[in-house]
Amino acid sequence: MNMAELSIKEIREWVEKLDEVPKDFLQLLKDDKRAGVQDIARKAEAAIARREKLASQWTEMTQYERSLRESGHVHLFGIDEVGRGPLAGPVVAAAVCLPADFYLPGLNDSKKVPVATREAFYEVIMRDATAVGIGVVDAVRIDAINILNATKEAMLLAIQNASIVPDACLIDAVQLAGLNCKQVPIIGGDGKSVSIAAASIVAKVTRDRMMVEYGREFPEYGFEKHAGYGTAEHLSAIERFGATPIHRKTFTGVKEQA
């Protein structure tokens, strides 16, 4: 290809159509002395570096899954929850089984993923996962059994609500009693295992959507904005209006409504 025969606009349009710029073509771009082509080359090189970094991250975050599959396990569940810390709303857990060839670069702990990306990842996971189960434990139950036990209960419900039975469960931080399969508890697992990260995304999006609905039901509290966490706005609303039925009475900052 004679780069000199192409305008900068033509080169930019051609590069934009490529899923990935081949490295030999990247070299041609870098050899072109036109400032506009040099800019295209820098952006293409940065995109290649980002893809390589995400691919390396994926390899690192699939080490547990690869090890389990090599030892004969097939249906691997990632288990994670969201909602342990809020003053209101349920704790929500997800159990996600990903197919062996699943690839979603950038998948990570839901807290590290921008909202729009998180929503997009959720759709991909729900479409392509082998199985997904959701477990929800409400505020009344949380008050009755405490948040740690409620978290474990939500996780067990998520596993039970999936359409298949797991061979092994990769779980963020906790160990579950009464689970009849191999367990691999991983501290900080939503950043170390793609299966747990996928569960983190599903649980987060599911709970956030629930809190939006609660925001419509209780418009004074702003649940759609803070998801039940103890923000200044939320604490002020509690002070003014008292607790709703979705508030956790055992958590600091919540008073019974008179």
Describe this structure in words.
The protein starts with 7 loop residues before the first helix and ends in a 17-residue tail after the last helix. The model has no long low-confidence stretch (mean pLDDT 92). It is built from ten helices and five strands. The protein has 258 residues and is α/β, with parallel strands linked by helices. Strands 3-2-1-4-5 form a five-stranded mixed sheet. The longest helix has 27 residues, at 35-61. 49% of the residues lie in helices and 12% in strands. It is flat. Helix 5 crosses helix 8 (194-217) and helix 6 crosses helix 7. The protein has helices at 8-16, 23-31, 35-61, 63-70, 115-128, 139-145, 147-161, 194-217, 223-226, 232-241; strands spanning 76-82, 91-97, 131-137, 168-172, 182-186.
